[in-house]
Amino acid sequence: MKIAITGSSGLIGSALVERLRRDGHEVVTMTRGQRDDAHALWNPEAGWIRDGALDGVEAIVNLGGENIGGGRWTAARKARLRSSRIDATRLLVDHLRERKITPRVFISASAVGYYGHRVEERLDETAAAGAGFLADLCRDWEAAAMGAADLGSRVVLLRTGVVVDGAAQAFKLLVLPFKFGAGGPLGSGKQWAPWIHLDDAVGAIVHTLTHEVHGPVNVVAPETLTNGGVAKVLGRVLKRPSFMPAPGFALKVLLGQMAQELLLNSQRVVPATLEASGYEFRHARFESAVRAALGRPAAATGAAGAAGATR
């Protein structure tokens, strides 16, 4: 299959490119740059895609977007976050429409931020959008991607949780305090924290390429954990204390709105569509994912699990 990928240099994108090429697919990495760069295939900010870049593609995996946790959410940064996702996705769909290209499947990134702050509600893919900047961004991002459905493509929307991997920025920041003996829950620790190991984030995308799922797909692991449960597992795996909380008010002072929506919102998200379509997780439990990410030996039988964890 000929597959075009945006965001191919990111954590998930680079791992996906490697997996797809290993599986024998032809992969077009949508390299960004200026028009005078012969290797550049598109520039979302400038609003162009090189002629022929998407000719013959049977699938598009749209993973591009500026790092959501890369800095405080000023008005200017919010505008860049939206443009790098929504405008870029519209550019792709418009290009397909103008060139009369209809990929069999159009897979586009989104995030569990779509659901906003939902306390204890169990959230499968039928749950409505929540409130807040991230919820609005994800809703509009998904709406832009759904334009490909009008062209006849099967559209998949990847609502992804925090990625667990040794190279993942968010996971490294989560682990760092534990290495210094200062780890613990964020805020109250009672908020649900959806997660997914990188292997399963990639595996889920490959699965949606070949299975007839469509619409939103929660790319999260089956085990739901509170943030306090996350802290307990990290402390156990790293053999470090896990009882020093980071007060919510301090996080908000440091990071502003980003702290509330990325760290303190509660989202008990479940992978209903992946499970119903037969996807088999490599790391269904958080402790397994953490040990794989950090290169730690597997726990003894019966030792997995954590307070705050449940199906």
Describe the structure.
The protein has one domain (2-310): NAD(P)-binding Rossmann-like Domain (Rossmann fold), CATH 3.40.50. It is 37% helix and 16% strand. The chain contains ten helices and 14 strands. The protein has helices spanning 11-22, 75-99, 133-145, 169-179, 198-210, 227-238, 248-255, 257-264, 272-276, 286-294; strands spanning 2-6, 26-29, 42-43, 48-49, 59-62, 105-111, 122-123, 154-160, 162-164, 195-197, 215-219, 224-225, 268-269, 309-310. The strands form five sheets. Strands 2-1-5-6-8-11 form a six-stranded parallel β-sheet, with helices on both faces. Strand 5 (59-62), helix 2 and strand 6 (105-111) form a beta-alpha-beta unit. The chain starts with a strand and ends with a strand.
What composes the largest sheet?
6 strands, parallel
Top-tier CATH class: Alpha Beta
Give me the CATH superfamily: NAD(P)-binding Rossmann-like Domain
Outline, from the CA principal axes? globular
Radius of gyration: 19 Å
**Helix run count:** 10
Overall tally of domains: 1
Proportion in helices? 25-40%
Q: Report the average pLDDT across residues.
A: 94
Enumerate the spans where pLDDT stays under 50 for 5 or more consecutive residues: none
